[in-house]
Design goal:
With about 160 residues, the chain is α/β, with parallel strands linked by helices. It contains 6 helices and 5 strands. The structure holds adenosine-5'-diphosphate (ADP).
Length: about 160
């Protein structure tokens, strides 16, 4: 059985919270496709090329991971990868409403595709890319929240 999953997101930039979900997913599924959404409407700090490259570097130790960009609907990306599962991470209750809405919309668009939620590890429950960017621009050292090469790239962009 070839069990595949897609993990879509903006990853602007990758944090230890994302990496934790990726590592756990890679132990459950045979192949994990990380789809880096262009997310132009979010005006990401890093270009999609930079985000893909950071994810590749951060997941280089994992054998069954592939990283690529995608534009458009998540369900279309899942179909392209012939994956019937979308994985999303859940942190606080505040993630729930948006994720619930999104999962139900995706089910309407493609009922054969399931969204599976993985609960954050307690160490990362408060961690978000947005918070990290704010912290760096205010002078914080974020090496315990993101891989050190990502912390360095953030410092260069934001200071
Ligand atoms: P999006 O723009 O799709 O929300 P993100 O990069 O912000 O993209 O998040 C991608 C996925 O990773 C989402 O499912 C999000 O809930 C999850 N995620 C983000 N940070 C964490 C974290 N600290 N712990 C667990 N899951 C997380």
């Amino acid at each position: 059985m070839n069990r595949k999953v897609i993990y879509p997101g903006t990853f602007d930039p990758i944090t230890h919270g994302h990496l934790d979900i990726i590592e756990r997913a890679s132990r459950i599924y045979d192949r994990v496709f990380i789809g880096v959404a262009h997310s132009k409407e979010k005006h990401p700090l890093f270009s999609v090329k930079e985000r893909v490259s950071m994810l590749k570097r951060a997941t280089a130790h994992l054998k069954n991971i592939e990283v690529e960009d995608f534009d458009g609907l998540v369900v279309d990306y899942a179909k392209k990868k012939t994956s019937r599962v979308i994985i999303r991470g859940l942190r606080m209750l505040s993630d729930f409403e948006f994720e619930f809405q999104m999962a139900l919309t995706n089910r309407k668009l493609a009922e054969e595709i399931e969204t599976i939620f993985m609960m954050t590890s307690d160490n990362y429950a408060y961690l978000s890319s947005k918070l990290i960017k704010e912290a760096v621009s205010l002078g914080a050292d974020v090496k315990s929240f993101v891989p050190s090469f990502v912390a360095e790239k953030l410092r260069k962009k934001l200071r």
